[in-house]
Recover the amino acids of this structure.
């Protein structure tokens, strides 16, 4: 039995909370005490645990800065060895870093992310979810902007 772990931003104070999505349905924000109704009830995921949205995407649970950092370091080392005409070492560093990159990509798991609130779900089967789509993300961005505008206008009175 897999245990789903979720990470989401509190709708009240916007701070990050982590929780077990499969057990508790009621969650209290550890920062502001705001009560959040979690949707997660089974090991399989059909909607976002934090907001109930059905559009979710999967991505590799691998920080992008780390991948970019590895690549930058490999390029720098390649350059340093290449200017000393040590091409064999230079190339093996470059190829080696590509291999490491591939291995990391292979062993890290997936994380399923909500388009609407950004809640991250880990430890669940993710095959049924599509990769990130720019069009869908844009739709939710527009929706968010509209909501913020409405809120600002109603605050003005
Ligand atoms: Zn909060
Ligand atoms: Zn959500």
């Amino acid at each position: 039995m897999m245990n789903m772990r979720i990470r989401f931003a509190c709708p009240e104070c916007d701070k990050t909370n982590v929780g077990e999505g499969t057990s508790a349905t009621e969650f209290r924000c550890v920062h502001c005490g705001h009560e959040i109704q979690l949707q997660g009830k089974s090991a399989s995921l059909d909607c976002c645990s934090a907001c109930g949205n059905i559009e979710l995407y999967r991505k590799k649970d691998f920080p992008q800065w780390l991948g970019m950092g590895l690549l930058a370091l490999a390029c720098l080392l390649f350059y340093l060895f290449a200017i000393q005409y040590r091409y064999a070492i230079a190339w093996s560093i470059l190829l080696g870093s590509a291999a490491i990159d591939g291995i990391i990509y292979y062993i890290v798991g997936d994380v399923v992310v909500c388009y609407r609130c950004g809640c991250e779900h880990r430890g669940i089967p993710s095959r049924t979810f599509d990769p990130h789509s720019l069009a869908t993300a844009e739709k939710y961005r527009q929706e968010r902007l509209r909501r913020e505008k409405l809120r600002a206008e109603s605050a003005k009175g």
About this structure: Residues 5-61+109-156 form one domain. Helices lie at 64-82, 87-107, 134-156. The chain has two domains: 5-61+109-156, 64-106.
